[in-house]
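Subject: sequence -> structure tokens, single chain

Hey, anyone have a minute? Need the predicted structure for the following. Not urgent.
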Amino acid sequence: MNIKLVIFDMDGVVLDSERIANIAWLDTAKELGAVMTEEDLRHIKGGNYVRTTRILSEKYGSDMAVKILDMKKKKQREIMASEGGVKLKKGVVEILEFIKKVGLKCVIATSTVKESATRNLKFTGVYDYFDSFIFGDEVRKSKPDPEVFLKACAKVGVDKSQAVVIEDSVMGATAAFNGGIRCFVVEDTIKFTPEENKLATMKFDSLIDVMNYLKDNR
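Reply:
Had a minute. Here:
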């Protein structure tokens, strides 16, 4: 496949944070008396703070949107703390070790802001595996715009035709598709519809499966 760069989304791919985020979103909405559905989460997942604020403001009004975002952030931190901090997804260390062993580059491209993302990547011990990072507060346009992935390619000097994105969200897969970059989807809390599956170059059950594929198809 002529792959020189693997671009990782962070939440739901590297970090087991989307499960916790879902609980925080739904608990917050319930507590504030706002109706939030799984379909609402599908539209939110993968976007940055600005995009999420806009979506929530359109549905609930700007004042309620701010309340939801503030309470959700607090609840998510409380849940993470009760579980001993954020954990890695299955196969993360294995695939990162493989990538380094064979000399591929790897970059985190996330909608999460730098401070939070850096803290969690260092806490889980994987920060130093990555060659570079593009954070949500370093791009002007949120996923599904491809800016974050195109910047990731440019930052390490690899053409997008030699890159592959690993994503769990529909917005992220759409961003890769819009940027003309191959996308391996490893679903997390959101399951893709048959139509959304067309966004993926390939789908895998886990990062271990992605690693095994790369071993045979670099």
